[in-house]
Write a structure and sequence with these properties.
This protein has nine helices and nine strands. By secondary structure, it is an alpha/beta fold. It starts with a strand and ends with a helix.
């Protein structure tokens, strides 16, 4: 099984090298890395090229219409059987992540695998700020504001081909919309892998408290569009995050 890792980047020369190397050092042999850069001016592209990763199948640097437009570009180029995401501020939890996930796909003959993730301090990657434990899947959990952490999700490419990719109308909630459209009452085979697969720098677009109100407005639209009670789901989604901070201590 071939795995495609899609990374989006814009002016992240201080972090993107770690993301690229995280893919380089994976023990699983059949990986292609697609990097979509939004026209960085800080040397990000040069830093990526200097890594010398032979796993980079495509490196495109041009202006885009936002992160979901960039992700869709990467997905259109993907040739893997399985697709996952590793943003320019993130790294895989260890060198065996992709190998372990592929084994889960083979063992369960499933369409999607998701797992656990950590939000860490940008200044100290050993300091965990949020501990995201996925838990077993159910449609009921989605109705109550739960979703897997986007960057812990690995999915068969054919699922993307059927779903049509990300809705580019959203600034922050495009991944929420896509996950609900793909997972909620669709009947695809979903498996929870109780392992950590990613370390994410805390403070990105989706975790920045200054953008909370925009995120919540978009979430309400997503829930309404997908036939879920919006206010109840949003309230429970926000409340679900509170224990993640305490469990990280």
């Amino acid at each position: 099984m071939k795995v495609t890792v899609v990374t989006t980047c814009y002016n992240r020369s201080d972090t993107v090298v770690k993301a690229v190397r995280s893919v380089m050092f994976q023990t699983y042999p059949d990986i292609e890395h697609i990097i979509i850069d939004g026209g960085s001016t800080d040397g990000s592209v040069e830093a990526i090229r200097a890594c010398g990763s032979t796993r980079i199948a495509h490196l495109i640097s041009e202006r885009d219409k936002g992160c979901y437009n960039a992700l869709n570009k990467g997905l259109r180029l993907a040739s893997g059987d399985i697709v996952c995401w590793l943003h320019s501020d993130d790294v895989f939890y260890d060198d065996h992540v992709v190998e372990n996930v592929v084994e889960a796909f083979k063992k369960n003959s499933c369409d999607m695998v998701y797992a656990n993730g950590l939000f860490v301090s940008p200044d100290n990657p050993d300091r965990v700020i949020r501990n995201w434990i996925g838990g077993e899947y159910s449609d009921r959990k989605i109705e109550n504001g739960w979703l897997p952490l986007h960057t812990t999700v690995f999915v068969r490419k054919e699922i993307f081909d059927r779903s049509g990719g990300y809705c580019e109308d959203y600034v922050i909630a495009g991944d929420t919309d896509w996950l609900i459209r793909v997972m909620y009452k669709t009947g695809i085979s979903i498996v929870y892998l109780p392992q950590y697969v990613v370390r994410m720098n805390y403070g990105g677009l989706s975790t920045n408290w200054k953008r909370s109100f925009q995120r919540w407005r978009e979430d309400l639209r997503v829930y309404s569009r997908n036939g879920i009670s919006p206010v109840m789901a949003l309230v429970k989604k926000v409340l679900r995050k509170v224990p993640q901070f305490f469990s990280s201590k």
